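Supplementary Methods, section 5.1.

A reviewer requested that the exact input to the structure prediction be made available. We therefore reproduce it here, unchanged from the version used in the analyses.
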Amino acid sequence: MGALLTPSRIEAIQQRIERIVERLKPWSWLWPPMAFAAGLSSFFLVDRQQWLGAALALGLLFAWTLLLSEGLISRWLSRRGHPTPPRGVTTFIAQMIHQETLFFTLPFIIVTTVWNSGQTLFALLVGGMALLSIIDPLYFKVAERWRSLYFVFHAQCVFLVLLVTLPIMVHLTTGQSLLLALGITILVALPSFWHLLKQRSLKRWCAFFVLTLLLAYGAWLGRIWVPPASLWMTSSALSPGFNVEQRLPQGSMALTPQAISENGLYVYTAIRAPRGLSETITHAWHHNGVPMDVVELNIDGGREQGYRAWSHKQNFPEDPTGDWRIDIMTGTGQRLGLIRFEVSDDAQQATLADGEIRASGLSGLNLRRFVPGRPNDEEARPED
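The structure derived from this sequence is encoded token-by-token as follows.
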């Protein structure tokens, strides 16, 4: 091994890498749109060509492994008296990998974000990071001067790539993917605060340990703001009746207290998920901001129009008038969508539950026609 990795050979390899990087720099502007196209391909072809989505995700994870091992490789070369890779070259490679990650995951985030919720802030954060990664002066300034912020930026990219690729590659549920992504991200983010241990003492070790716990707890509390990158609600409807055979809402009524007391209310949702992925979702009912009932439903991925799940609420409070909200959530508390309606004594002011299936979010653009899947008519039934 030592004979193979002589200082002259290592220097020749590094010079060759530097020449390749210099040739790539004029064309680096092509990398973000190529990564975005790769993300779109993985997103839209994950059911028809599942191997393609897995291959793209695996290639991305391999690139991240190289980036994470860059520091170890540099230290290994330095200890043996070999020249280390120049900072400019490694930063440029890191920038390309950051761009690949951000623009690869961006289509997943855009489509699965519930835009009338706090998830909008997370989506804007990802968009801002993607923009930062293509503005060279700002990116290199952060990389050179604000190393702690750079490590946080790096950790967020790790979180994104794990959140998106784990359900595609190994069919982990969104909850399992979220927990694993959070754990690894915290480990990657810890070097940002390593300066606390420059002077090692019991007090500093305790501070470092407490900081780690606070990061983990804060990340878990913020999970409702993180879109489930493998699931999204394609459509929803409110109706007084439901055709179980056709699995379609039916009927129409104004949501007055008398009407919902006599008929109850059906809530229909269609949830899009990759083939082979099984999830538990909930319909969480709220009246004037107060939690009421939670109905659990099991869904399976693969249906083009989304897996149809419905619940039927019949037990309403004595005075049901006011604002109602139904949160469509994953089993671990990530929001898939929300439905609002008003119950009023005045039929003109009350919401009309007309059974019409309305597209949700970006599904209104009929993006699902680009996401073919196998027919799957097995549906989730309510437990309410």
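The CA atoms of residues 260 and 306 lie 27 Å apart. These observations are discussed further in the main text.
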